[in-house]
Amino acid sequence: xxxxxxxxxxxxxxxxVAVFRISGKNAANAVRLMTNIDxxxxxxxxxxxxxxxxxxxxxxxxxxxxxxxxxxxxTGEDIVEFHTHGSKAVLNxxxxxxxLIDDFRLxxxxxxxxxxxxxxxxxxxxxxxxxxxxxxxxSMQQQYALKQMSGNLKNLYESWRRQILGxxxxxxxxxxxxxxxxPQDVIAKNLNTVFKIKNEIQxxxxxxxxxxxxxxxxxxxxxxxxxxxxSSLINALTDRxxxxxxxxxxxxxxxxxxxxDIKGYPVVLTDTAGLRQTSDDIEKQGIEIARQKIxxxxxxxxxxxxxxxxxxxxxxxxxxxxxxxxxxxxxxxLLDNEQxxxxxxxxxxLISAKTKTGLTELLNVLADKIQNTIGSNTSAxxxxxxxxEALNDCLKNLDAFDFDKPIELAAEDIRLAARxxxxxxxRIEVDEILDKIFSSxxxxx
Length: 445
Description:
By secondary structure, the protein is α/β, with parallel strands linked by helices. It folds into three domains: about 5-105, Gyrase A, domain 2, CATH 3.30.1360.120; about 125-205 and about 380-440, Up-down Bundle (Four Helix Bundle (Hemerythrin (Met), subunit A)); about 215-375, Rossmann fold, CATH 3.40.50.300. It contains 15 helices and twelve strands.
């Protein structure tokens, strides 16, 4: 971290305002070389000034300059920001000027956040919460990313880690004094602590997929026989011509993913091939893909033409979790009142993809089901597979812990459990995972 780094932190294209961020021990040199501001610049004060080329001294723009003095900055280092106009000519000239300053180099993707982590301004869960906020497309993704940035996961995991280290401290003390017997009350206290942590981690893992779904989208698959109106339903829900609609059976042969925002929840809506017997090899593959998608789905919309059949056609869904299936009686505009009552009594949801009847209610039901899946405690959801893997590793070592073992082996179980938790927050040497995490960030963040 010896170099001073710089990057454009806003969009690389035409915009009203562009922000250049500079971080490092020599960040203030950019102010000295590119403005007429006194080098004793006041931190957190906005200066309106001309910006000059660092070598030719040609005027580049009229800008706002801000200075954040270490350690009271995002990275924990001195930071300078130039707020310029966002034309391509300005962007290119400012980047060129910064590149010509001694000891300055262009930042790598995620390097500002990586320096913030290395300078203890945030832990890894907070850094990944920041990445999620940048990528957020729905209001629920935004809300949860902000919670994670605020330290909700860090506080939970660090609490477990501190308690585990407390047990480890007892073990180490008795390793240092092998002639001393461990009192029974100490054994009981530590066993109780381990039991309590194991219970809390197991409960935390129960909804382990919900957080990842909140990041990546809940999987909702539309299935049903040919010509049931599946593609028409997707077009109606998305309010655009997203997939081909045809009366010809077998038109949809592959799974087609459409992304939706349903009351703030991200949803991946998948149109699948119509379920039927066919001799067409390509269509057979599409039907097999449809079955795989159904098995992996969070929710299934089972659509049938209510003017010609009923939900009994979904025999092959009998072994599927019925709580995740919503039976949709489509073409309800063609039904009389008696038929509508019959389908309602069978637990079907009446819709019409053609007239869009019942679609608002359908979206409300889906949103409620998603909310029930997540539960009321959305403050601490597992948003990444690596969290779940580390927690399972921690549990494995806590399960192996036993005072009947030689004390050195029991202590090693506890140490490994603490280390597994530390992999999540970065409270151990984790160079091997840092580059992987921060490389997903955009440049300038």
